[in-house]
Amino acid sequence: RERARPPADGHAPSSAAMSLLNTDEWMRSVDVPVYAGNGEGAPRPRGVPQTLQFRNGIPFQTVTNRATAPPGPTSPWDKHDPRWGTNRPSTASNAPAAVPTRKPSWLAYDGVKLQWRGYFEDLETTKRTGLPRVRKCFITYHLEDGTVDVREPREVNSGIVQGPLLHRMPCDNANGERMSFRDIRVGEPVTIFSRTYNVLGCDEFTRSFLAKEGVHVPPEIPFPHERDPEPPKGQFKSAPSVMPAAADAPPRLPDASGVGVSVRFNSDGVAVEVPTDHDHDARGSTGARPAPPSAIAGLKEAAGRQFLAYDRRVLRFFGTCEVPAGGDDARLVGSTRNFVVHYYLADDTVEVLEVMPGNAGREPYGKFLKRQKLPKATLAGGGYRYGVGIRPASDETLRARRREPDGFYHWRDLCVGGDVVVFGLVLTLRDCDEHTKAWYAAECGLTDDDFPSMPPPAGPPPIPERVVPPNVSGIGTDADSLNSVYRLVPKVPKKDVSFDEWLINQGQVMRFTGKLVDGPGKPPVPENEKARTFVVSFFLEDNTLAVYEPPVANSGYPGGKYLERRPARKTSGSNVYLRARDCHVGALLEIKGTWMRLNAADDATLAIMEARPKEFPGSDARAVVTALTQALARAGPSAAKELSRLCAVEDAKLGGGGAMVLNRAAFLNVMCELCAHAPGLGEFVDAQRLITLWRVLPKVSFDPSQTRLPAGVPREALGEDHALIADVFETLSVPFER
Question: Per-residue pLDDT averaged across 295-319, rounded?
Answer without folding.
Answer: 76
